[in-house]
Please model this.
Amino acid sequence: MTRPWNFSAGPSALPEPVLRTAAAEMLDWHGSGMSVMEMSHRGKQFVQICSEAEADLRELMGISDDYAVMFMQGGGTAENAIVPLNLLATRPAQKADFVLTGIWSAKSYKECMRYGDAQVAATSGVAARVGGVEQGAYTWVPRPETWQVRKDASYLHCCSNETIGGVEFMNWPTPADLGAPDVPLVVDASSHFLSRPMSVDRTGMIFAGAQKNAGPAGVTIVIVRRDLIGHALPICPSAFDYANVAPEHSMFNTPPTYAIYIAGLVFKWLKQLGGLAQIEGQNIVKAEALYGYFGQTDFYRLPVHPSVQSRMNVPFFLPDPTLDAAFLQGAEARGLMQLKGHKTVGGMRASIYNAMPLAGVVALIDYLKDFERSHG
Model:
């Protein structure tokens, strides 16, 4: 069977070797006579699966024992509530500051307002002139030296890759850089997690919904510095309290077992490729190919400032929205799927995560050229 090129922003394509391994092990995992979906989460087979997944992730990302690794449920949206429920009370003022660079960081900010004192430290939610270029809202990132971080805040939150807007930044400042040395950085890295090396030790916490680069929907990966655990607000549900989940190695309640298993296979696949530096190299080649083509044409419009264009999520617009339906129909006829932009911004979006090979990006570029020739 010929598989289409899946440009979905999430749930997204999984590496084909991972799918083949999962298919081969569906009825019988390693001679156990059981599918992973049938196993007790406290049985020795699944404990092995989960332990290996955590160990492989720690190796891939260089995560020290100063950080707990948890496999949780609810996705990034639920984590927007779980984070303040756990971290707001780490300091008496119960404050949190936010850098707003798109829809997801704005959602995080609004969710935190339900539980404590949330404040905007910086925002790109307005049009601005950036590097001599006029930029629309949420298409650029404020310079870290302009962020206004309260010194008594419990944490500073940012989304380092905005899936919808296609804005990515990796120049994570340290708290000392911001004049707030005691304020830990919390990073929502959902849509570029495992696409490149990340400086875990510059953060207090990183979290990511798995369904972009790390696995299927259903499991959220949470990496949090251990000294930040144990301060949950009284209203925090017990199953979401890091102080309960971390010492139980994600087994406080029944975790999303099959999603953890698939994520573990993804981690092994990345290790076999050579790790995150290797996959980053591949992602750079793909992104440069696609952005390189867009840089040669005036037919398509890219909204994001070049300095923060995402390697993972590439939004673009046709010159006339009335062409959108024809573009999508033609793309699907060529096996190029899920290119429609998010409903809140419109246009098109190509998500080129780890599992998307260069051949898929080349196929997209060929179609972009053909569509321009016939409609330009």
Notes: The domain at 275-375 is CATH 3.90.1150.10 (Aspartate Aminotransferase, domain 1). The chain has a mean pLDDT of 97.
